[in-house]
Amino acid sequence: MENSNPTIPVSKFLDLTGKTAIVTGGALGIGFGITARLAEAGANVVIANRTKEEGEKAALDLTAKGFKVKAICTDVSKEEAVKNLVIETVNDFGSIDILVNNAGIYPSIPVSKMSLDEFDKILSVNLKGVFLTTKYSSEQMIKQGKGGSIINITSIDALHPSMIGLAAYDASKHGVWGFTKNVALELAPHKIWVNAIAPGGIATPGVAKMQQPQPAGIDQAKMIEGFLSGIPMHRMGEADDIGKVVLFLASNMSSYMTGSQIVVDGGFLLS
Q1: Entry pTM
Q2: How many domains does the chain have?
Q3: Which amino acids are annotated catalytic?
Q4: In principle, which of 39, 45, 66, 162 could form an S-S bond with 157, CB 3.0–4.6 Å?
């Protein structure tokens, strides 16, 4: 976010009061961890979630704590839905200052068994969705003339191959990392900083679901157990581990960063 004024006191660096953030997939897992931290920092937060009930429940949980959070049912792979998300957010809160592209899907299907429709669906949500939300949110940020921050949640799988069955997911995350760097160049003249966060193994409902038996016959539980053994910190991350780094990138703490990717993986890539 623009502002490198050295007179800002340390206590205000993480203050997002008056800012409005959109978090795609912000109702569960990593997304909820991000939403909660941004709301705690004083931002108005819009949860853009494909499932209406999940989004509304998350919003109610946080508004009960006094935070300003609203859910807008959104399929990020649909252009009209994303346009509506931007319009509704501006109508409700007056601006868009922070965009966190977190929504993503990761069905485990080996390439030999994957249909074209399945491949297209993964790329549509994970990559096309980032393009659409970035396009329309940045247009609004440029119109406002105050700069902004776009944070894309990639994965350590944007830096190395993951397990068998996630080829399409890996392709989408490599794509988001490339997109992040290019758009950072395009939007820098408008004082809009574009960065990425690459989570490693994070304990979420989605990861727990992957440990259940898979139709393709892949032993996901065994693969995840092997993955855990390679983490030097000897634990899976928590959603809040990502939420805190998003808060850093959304705040004045990261005022001279754009086109960067922060790895948050407990040291896994070192092993």
Answers
A1: 0.91
A2: 1
A3: 169
A4: 162
